[in-house]
Design brief:
By secondary structure, the chain is an alpha/beta fold. It is built from eleven helices and 17 strands. The strands form three sheets. A five-stranded mixed β-barrel has the order 6-9-7-8-12.
Length: 349
């Protein structure tokens, strides 16, 4: 069995502005450790026998992807460049087509490049289970065992259990609090992780059946690609024909081959500064302080000083982050609106 990591690195990470931006999104930042998030994504597979990773990213990020992965692995990645973003289904399709050139029976482990997983051992055990199931023709997703009634995640309803896997009954959109509490109490629902394991040919076959136009254009974009020494440049004319869609909508909600492996490994998608505060180690005042920070009578706050000394006095439940170009000051419970600021900045040019 050839296991190929497929790393999706197309996100903009605007909810972690001002550090994360379109030119330098969060997956290229060291937010949890001294390694960047894309490096951590690859490193958590260390110890498993895997082939060189396939990374799908935009043209603007090609050099930083190659540089950061070369720092943590001797395996040269296959870096596929999207001429424009088309969501996860086409990105995974071109990666699977590339995987067939490596091994026609390849099993792809599809991973977003910006997640946190604390328990690497539990994660690798789940990957092995999922890979074995994938060899039997299943499309496997990881269902995160929920720890609280989250309203910011989509959910997966699991059905009957066979061995270590569950049938996939349905995907559910982000719920309100009352519904999330019902999901948690029932024990039938998991958080939607956005991570998948399947044979490349199985995924492409299912995509062809459900979204034939997307399948044809994705395969054409790869087969007409300019394959350079370091990068694979997808054919723009072919890729432009694709009507973008997520893997959930395009395939996983329609397939009868869906399976779920439950994962309890300290997962977080780090979708906001408050999420980063939650998973980081805190001081006696429940603060997460990074860089040159002076804190007086401040509690339950996230303060990150990358460029300047930051002094905070008498504050509670706030986020303060400085960068080369801007400073963010926000109430902790309003950080989801940071993406609106990023949109306003983009509109300003």
């Amino acid at each position: 069995m050839t296991i190929i990591p497929v790393i999706l690195s197309g996100g903009a990470g605007t909810r972690l502005w001002p550090l994360s931006s379109g030119n330098h999104p969060k997956q290229f930042l060291p937010l949890i450790s001294d390694k960047t998030m894309i490096q951590e994504t690859l490193l958590r597979l260390s110890g498993l026998e895997t082939a060189s990773p396939i990374v799908v990213c935009g043209e603007a990020h090609r050099f930083i992807v190659a540089e950061q992965l070369s720092e943590v692995s001797e395996k040269k990645p296959v870096v596929i460049l999207e001429p424009l973003a088309k969501n996860t289904a086409p990105a995974i399709a071109v990666a699977c087509r590339a995987a067939l050139d490596i091994d026609k029976d390849a099993v792809c482990v599809v991973l977003p490049s910006d997640h946190v997983i604390k328990d690497t051992g539990a994660f690798q055990t789940a990957v092995k289970t999922a890979a074995e199931e994938a060899m039997n023709g299943s499309l496997v997703t990881f269902g995160i065992v929920p720890t609280f009634p989250a309203t910011g995640y989509g959910y997966i309803k699991c059905g009957s259990q066979t061995g270590k896997t569950f049938s996939l009954e349905k995907f559910v959109e982000k719920p309100n609090l009352e519904k999330a509490e019902e999901y948690l109490k029932s024990g039938e629902y998991s958080w939607n992780s956005g991570m998948f394991v399947f044979k490349a040919e199985t995924f492409l076959s299912e995509l062809k059946g459900f979204e034939s136009d997307m399948y044809a254009a994705s395969v054409e974009a790869y087969e007409k690609a300019v394959k350079e020494t370091d990068f694979v440049r997808l054919d723009k004319a072919s890729y432009e024909k694709i009507k973008g869609n997520s893997i959930d909508y395009a395939v996983m909600e329609k397939t009868s081959k869906g399976k779920v492996v439950k994962l309890d490994a300290g997962w977080n998608d780090v979708g906001s500064w408050s999420a980063l505060w939650e998973i980081r180690e805190k001081d006696a005042e429940q603060n997460v302080l990074s860089g040159d920070v002076i804190s007086l009578n401040t509690k339950a706050s996230y303060v990150r000083a990358d460029k300047k000394t930051i002094a905070v006095i008498g504050l509670e439940n706030v986020v303060v982050v400085d960068s080369e170009d801007a400073i963010l000051i926000s109430a902790m419970d309003k950080v989801q609106d940071v993406k609106l600021v990023a949109e306003k900045m983009k509109a300003r040019g």
